[in-house]
Amino acid sequence: MTGALTTGTKAAALAVIVGALCLLFEGLMPWIISFPAAWTLPLTNWVGTGAGEALALIKPTARGFSDLMSYPMDWAKLGLNAAPWPLILGVVLALGWRTGGVPMLVLAAVGMAFVLASGYWEQGMNTLALVAVSVPLALIMGAGIGILANEVPRVREPVQVVLDVMQTVPTFAYLTPLLVLFGFGPVVGLVASAIYAAPPMARNVLLGLQRIEPEIKEAAIMAGGTRRQQLFQIELPAAMTQIMVGVNQSLMAALSMVIIAAVIGGFNDIGWEVLLTMRKGWFGQSLMAGMVIVVFAILIDRMSGTLAQERKPQFDSRIGWGLVALGAIVAVVTYGQLGETSDYAMLGPVTKQVDAGLTAFTTANADWLNALKNNALFYVLLPIRIGLDQAVLPFTWGFMWTSQMSLWLFAGAGVVSAGLIVSGRVMGGLIVLIIAGILETGVSQLPWPFALVAAGGLAWSAGGRKLALLIVALLASILLAGLWERALLSFYLSGVSVFACAVIGGGIGLISAVSPMTWKVVRPVCDMLQTIPLFVFLIPILMVFQIGEFSAFLAIIAYAIVPMIRYTRQGLVETPEEMIEGAIASGATKWQMLFHVRAPYAAPTILLGLNQTILYAFAMLVIAALIGTTGLGQSIYLALNKADVGLGLSAGAAMAILAFGADRIVQGFAEDRRKALGL
User: Fold this and answer.
1) Residue 503 pLDDT more than 90?
2) Contacts of 105 (CB under 8 A, 6+ apart)
3) How far apart are CA 635 and CA 548, in angstroms?
4) Angle at which helices 465-480 and 645-677 pack, to 10 degrees?
5) What angle do CA 663, 664, 669 make, to 5 degrees?
6) What sections of 83-152 are H helices per DSSP?
7) What number of CA atoms fall less than 13 Å from residue 604's CA on the CB side?
8) How far apart are CA 561 and CA 623, in angstroms?
9) Are 91 and 327 in contact (CB under 8 A)?
10) pLDDT at position 547 over 90
11) Inter-residue contact 351 to 284 (CB < 8 Å)
12) Positive or negative, the Cα torsion across 581, 585, 590, 595?
């Protein structure tokens, strides 16, 4: 730890020196702040040209595959829409009974009744058709990749890198080349869903095969089986529990892509309905359609999650078959009398009431809602984005920021820093100076030499020289591509959102660890938030706060806060009993035990939660571009609308670089902490 601390201190000191020099000479050398356009390279055009030529070569094959996949897609849509709703209801109830007994049966009944009453039964069946075709495709691809990585060790690391990249590249980024390859229509949405859902399956297949006990493998070898027999008859069945976790995650990933795929799919499914009603400002209908997706997500998550349990619950299969038979009998007896599913749309008036209630609520509370939004923008978000020297204006703060105030800010930070350094907390003192510089300048206008040095130093502290060189090289590519300003805007919004998640989510996780009763309330909320597709988070926020950066900020927090809550609580409650007993024996109070025993031991787990929160924030950042953000997310969305492959891939790669860098740095610190604890 001492070496790591020394490295971190040196890196922070170098960042302070470079930052001070940039502030000192920015008037004489403005290129320090704004990277000259003459120094950039036409990387976006190169990427667009190269990708265009590559896509042109495989376009005929892709269009052939598109035509081929249209058949199962059409069959699935036809089958689900032609089947009478009592029959489908009976099948879903049977699945609920088989996977969870009476509680799951009731949940399935309530959920499907809501779908029928919402008036979106046909769109819901089209959505399930998309999932039904895309998920098997994703499972086949993912399983093949996982088995290949397990069987050929030399490709394992490249496969892991590709999976990491696929996890960090925003979904919108690879929609653009898919649109060029497959054209506009349902099949391109199907392919996009399959690509997005394949990595979880690949990871879990590989993980499951690697975790098989050596004794099982040795027994298979001694039995004289061939390698193929060992793999398919022994190892894969032994890893089935972990593989079913991958199936569950793939199902949820495919469902979360429904609305995103609707952007380029454009057929009558729930995703398209949500997108269309959001664009028209029909928030009641949009929320209703979004809730249909949430219902599907909850049912699929609960039912498929049961399959991933080591000890699966056993229920009488005869009851399940009886429910299917009952549904079929009702469908036959009432044939020709059921009418259209739209005839059962009893919740239509609810959407009008929601819109009327929303209008009444926003009108009655306009003053404090605007005050909340404006205060957050003017006094928190804007100063962090553009700095105090530009954000503090008579219109917002009541006075003008002056250069003398900047001097006082740096002088105060210098005094605090000196006090910390003298007391032996050198790192803390240097961090105070860095924060003061960022507050005065703003994240979106950080000098690029300082940003490169600071990121490189942080990476060196977390993972050594190789990681530092890699991070600096990747960030330099963003700089040379002319995407630096947009990257800083994306980094600012994701960074401030992650900080809010860390503070709020960490606090909720801490309280949940201390109070089991609180966790009983928080846990189902977290479960629900994790099953909601990304787009659905936008609907209630848009209903209240309309389009803008504050709405995007809230949407990112709502989506990304759950990992921070879960991992914080998990880390704090998993402290070994011997450490607890030792603290009690030494006379530690409950809170001393929490902050001096549990928290240090939980640090690696909490850092992993922070890592997941960062990845979630970047995933939501592109979606938030639809409601008023700028930066790389907006560039990706514009590239999709214009079918600009070069801009889409370049901006997507830039966002992936930011996410990848943050992921590797946080993982490095977590690993360092684990080693310090002897884990």
Assistant:
1) yes
2) 93, 96, 97
3) 16
4) 160
5) 100
6) 85-118, 121-151
7) 14
8) 16
9) yes
10) no
11) yes
12) negative
pLDDT over 90 at 228, yes or no: no
Asked whether the beta carbons of 352 and 346 are under 8 A apart, the reply is: no
> Dmax of the chain from CA atoms?
87
Round to whole Å and give the CA distance between 142 and 240. 14
Q: Take residue 308 and report the two structure tokens written for it.
A: 């991933």
First-to-last C-alpha distance (Å) of the chain? 14
pLDDT in tens, 139-169: 999 889 989 888 888 888 888 878 877 776 7
Q: Chain-wide mean pLDDT for the chain?
A: 83
From 257, 245, 298, select the one nearest 530 (Cα to Cα).
Answer: 298
651: exposed, middle or buried (Cβ count in 10 Å: 0-12, 13-18, 19+): buried
SS3 category, 78: helix
* Residue 1's pLDDT band (cuts 50, 70, 90): very low
Candidates 571, 566, 570; CA nearest to 673 is: 571
Q: How far apart are CA 52 and CA 93, in angstroms?
A: 48
DSSP-based helix, strand, coil % in the chain, nearest 5: 85, 0, 15
Euclidean distance between CA atoms 669 and 341, whole angstroms: 55
Residue 347 phi/psi, 5-degree rounding, is -95, 5
Tokens of 635: 């560039």
Distant-in-sequence, close-in-space partners of 416: CB < 8 Å, separation ≥ 6: 429, 432
Q: DSSP string of 217-275? A: HHHHHHTT--HHHIIIIIIHHHTHHHHHHHHHHHHHHHHHTHHHHHHHH-SSSHHHHHH
Q: How far, in Å, CA of 654 to CA of 634, rounded?
A: 13
Residue type for 291, please?
M
Owner of token pair 């996982």: 146
Q: Which residues of 386-409 are buried (b: 16+ CB within 10 A; e: fewer)?
A: bbbbbbbeeeeeeeebeeeebeeb
Check if the beta carbon of residue 173 is closer than 8 Å to that of residue 47.
Answer: no
For residue 48, which amino acid is it? G
Distance CA 582, CA 591 (A): 15
Query: What DSSP assignment string belongs to 606-656?
Result: HHHHHHHHHHHHHHHHHHHGGGT--SHHHHHHHHHHHT-HHHHHHHHHHHH
- Taking the C-alpha atoms of residue 206 and residue 129, their distance in angstroms, rounded to an integer, is 28
Neighbours of 269 (CB within 10 A): 30
Lookup result for tokens 């209008």: 359
pLDDT tens digit sequence for 78-99: 888 888 888 998 899 988 888 8
Q: What are the backbone dihedrals phi and psi of residue 108, each rounded to the nearest 5 degrees, phi first?
A: -65, -40
Average pLDDT over residues 125-150: 88
Q: Which helix (H) or strand (E) holds 26?
A: none
What burial class does residue 247 get, using C-beta atoms within 10 Å of its C-beta: 0-12 exposed, 13-18 middle, 19+ buried? buried
Angle at Cα 491 formed by Cα 488 and Cα 495, nearest 5°?
145
Q: What pLDDT, on a 0 to 100 scale, did the predictor assign at position 130?
A: 84
- Nearest by Cα to 497 from 542, 549, 447: 549
Query: What does the pLDDT read at residue 678?
Result: 65
